[in-house]
Amino acid sequence: MSLQNYTSVTDFVLVGLPILIHFMGIIFASFFLIYIINLTANVSIMTVILSDSTLHTPMYFFLWNVAFLDICCSSSVVPKMLMDLVSEKKMISFYGCMLQVHFFHFVGSSQVIVFTVMSYDRYVAIAHPLRYTTIMSFNVCLCLVLCSLAIGFFHALVHTIMTVKLPFCGPNRVKHFFCDVKPLLILACADTSLNLLLIKRVTGTLTSTTLVLTILFYIFISRFLLKIKTSQGRRRALSTCSAHLCVVSLQYGTAVFTYMRPSTKYTLDQDRMAAILFTVITPALNPIIYTLRNKDMRKAMKKLCIRA
User: Fold this and answer.
1) Helix (H), strand (E) at residue 298
2) Which residues form the G-protein coupled receptors family 1 profile domain (predicted)?
3) b or e along 246-266 (b: 16 or more beta carbons within 10 Å of the residue's beta carbon)?
4) Which residues contact 154 (CB under 8 A, 6 or more apart)?
């Protein structure tokens, strides 16, 4: 049976954020400014890494990809959200909504996997410094990133296909500021228990597996850090790890809260607040954290500014 035969909803209305009309201008200006900071900071990181040959290492190759994914994650949601803040019609087409679901989950899950790959990269750099460039060759790094994107794509595809197959016969008001799986399931005119089970099993497995691997790599890293005799060497190793840990904590914190907490404790208002952190705040904070905690990045940025 084709989709049109059992789907009467052709458009969705994004309810957006529960804010008073008096604060609309302030909210719009704040989110717009944060989005510009996000774009500027992440593009700056990408430019610095490309332009400085001393940063052509596996760690910065992965950081370049994280910056790119940060831009994609925020851009999949924020421009539409800003338009809806100043528009009376907060409409999105059915297929536009499904595309947003897919792209958001594709980027988000890919980023989580890349963070785990970065943990492995830090482990190899600290545990096997003499073999680091051999183990983490460009081909290996490229393969790891491509595999991360492939897993993220198919993870998102599962949720998108399962959501598209649901009948939506009204109402069409999505109680969120973008199209996500859980708010859409509430509107479906059918049993969504399988979809909820998939969120727990598929997303839960991806999140928990990458989180456990990240924790294990940092346990191994901490063991090797204790063996470093000089305080300067230990501080240098810690500086690269601490920035990554801060970013990972923000990423996993919102992902676990949104998709892995018990359904009995699920509320859309809490989801919206977590989504703001995940799509608006965190992508703008990530490059700032990496730059502030990384001496090489600060030096490379100064050199680029002087040349400019």
Assistant:
1) helix 295-307
2) 41-290
3) bbbebbbebbebbbeeeeeee
4) none
Query: Contact 104/73 with Cβ under 8 angstroms?
Result: yes
Count H helices, E strands: the chain? 14, 3
pLDDT of residue 113: 96
| Phi (first) and psi of residue 11, to 5 degrees | -140, 155
How many other β-carbons are positioned within 10 Å of the β-carbon of residue 45?
27
| Cα–Cα–Cα angle for 231, 237, 240, rounded to 5 degrees | 140
pTM here is 0.88
Q: CATH number for the domain including 12? A: 1.20.1070.10
CA distances from 83 to 92, 177, 282 (A): 11, 11, 21
Number of domains in the chain: 1
The H or E element that residue 226 is part of is none
Q: Do you know the residue count of the chain?
A: 308
Contacts of 91 (CB under 8 A, 6+ apart): 11, 12, 13, 14
CB within 8 Å of 120: residues ≥ 6 apart:
213, 217
Report residues of the chain scoring pLDDT below 50.
1-5, 7
Determine the structural domain holding residue 55 and report its residue range. 3-307
Token duo for residue 107: 């980027």
Report pLDDT for 264.
Answer: 56
How far apart are alpha carbons 54 and 57 in whole angstroms? 7
Query: Residue 102: which residues within 8 A CB-CB, separation 6 or more?
Result: 156, 157, 159, 160
